[in-house]
Amino acid sequence: MSTLLFVYGTLKRGGSNHHQLAAQSFVGPARTPPGYRLYDIGGYPGLGAAATDREGVVGEVWSVDEAALLKLDAFEGVPEGLYRREPLQLEPPFAHRRVETYLPALDPSWGREVGTEWTE
User: Fold this and answer.
1) How buried is residue 96: exposed, middle or buried, by Cβ count under 10 Å (0-12/13-18/19+)?
2) Residue 119: enclosing H or E segment and its boundaries?
3) Cα-Cα-Cα-Cα dihedral of 60, 5, 75, 45, to 10°?
4) Is 100 one of the annotated active-site residues of the chain?
5) Under 8 Å CB-to-CB from 85, ≥6 apart: which residues?
6) Is the separation of the CB atoms in 60 and 28 below 8 Å?
7) Which of 76, 80, 86, 120 is catalytic?
8) Which among 39, 29, 59, 41 has a CA at the least distance from the CA of 115?
9) What is the pLDDT of residue 58?
10) Mean per-residue pLDDT pooled into runs of 10, the chain (120 residues)
11) What is the bridge-based pairing of β-strands 58-65 and 2-7?
12) Which one, of 32, 39, 24, 119, lies nearest residue 75 by Cα?
């Protein structure tokens, strides 16, 4: 069984941690609905709610197998409570599909806002 995963930072193609998705399948570019922004929370991004946002966050959707998902959970610090993996609504063509993402456990808005797309 595979999971659709929205990535928005260092896991994206060309990102410093993309190798974590090396054997998985790229599905396509994606965007959240308005209401989200990215925050730099220590050299990597955190996706957070932003009521004034009108654009949404740009990222990618990947099809990830169960073994890779468990490794990604460990990499993202899910067992330690740093991030949590949750469903996230996306814009079409993914609007009616279950897609998950990693969200910081703490509100990331304490970090520097970096907009709608993470670039390294």
Assistant:
1) exposed
2) none
3) 40
4) no
5) 69, 73, 76, 78, 100, 101, 102, 103
6) yes
7) 76
8) 39
9) 97
10) 96 95 96 96 92 94 97 96 96 97 93 89
11) antiparallel
12) 24
Fill in the amino acid letter for 117.
E
The full DSSP string for 36-103 is EEEEESSSSEEEEE-TT-SS--EEEEEEEEHHHHHHHHHHTTTTTTSEEEEE----TTSTTS--EEEE
State yes or no: cis peptide before 93, omega within 30 of 0: yes
Q: Which residue has the tokens 């197998």?
A: 65
pTM of the model: 0.95
Distance (Å, whole) CA 25 – CA 73: 17
Q: Which tokens belong to 11?
A: 């896991």
